[in-house]
Specification:
- By secondary structure, the protein is mainly β.
- It has one domain: Metal Binding Protein, Guanine Nucleotide Exchange Factor, Chain A (Beta Complex).
- The chain is built from one helix and eleven strands.
- A hairpin with a 2-residue loop joins strand 8 and strand 9.
- It comes from Bradyrhizobium amphicarpaeae.
Length: 137
């Protein structure tokens, strides 16, 4: 069995363990991710929900994406760190913030999403595939 991906918030109140490999890893330059990260992008790894175990009680807040569907962000009520996202339209996936990994070096971005909203000062790997918005289904 492969080594699980583990991680959580800064204070340790929220923890996760994920069996399996991410099926998509990206830097997202949409305005929502810029605001949440306080930077030019958010970095994410997306997994099948079936392999995910979360301990601790996260607080949640919803926002509506460009698709019109809700995305729910889970964060720690103690330290405030955003840890994961789920999507109402895609209940079988679970997305974690790359910086929440215990071993962030395991993160391997594949693409940049919402590159059209990126800023010139946010220099990302130029070899990554760039999508103006979300990649096609």
């Amino acid at each position: 069995m492969d080594k699980p991906y583990t991680g959580g918030c800064a204070c340790g109140a929220i923890r996760y363990s994920i069996a399996g490999e991410p099926f998509f890893s990206n830097h997202c330059q949409c305005r929502d991710c810029q605001r949440e990260s306080g930077s030019g992008h958010g970095s994410y790894a997306t997994f099948a929900r079936a392999g995910v175990t979360v301990t601790g009680e996260a607080k949640h807040w919803d926002m509506v994406g460009d698709s019109g569907n809700a995305k729910t962000r889970g964060f720690c009520p103690l330290c405030g760190v955003a840890v994961y996202m789920t999507f109402a339209a895609m209940p079988d996936i679970f997305t974690i913030r790359a910086a929440s990994l215990d071993e962030p070096a395991r993160y391997r971005p594949q693409a940049v999403t919402y590159a059209a909203r990126g800023h010139g000062w946010d220099h990302l790997d130029p070899s990554l595939v760039k999508f103006e918005g979300m990649p096609p289904g």
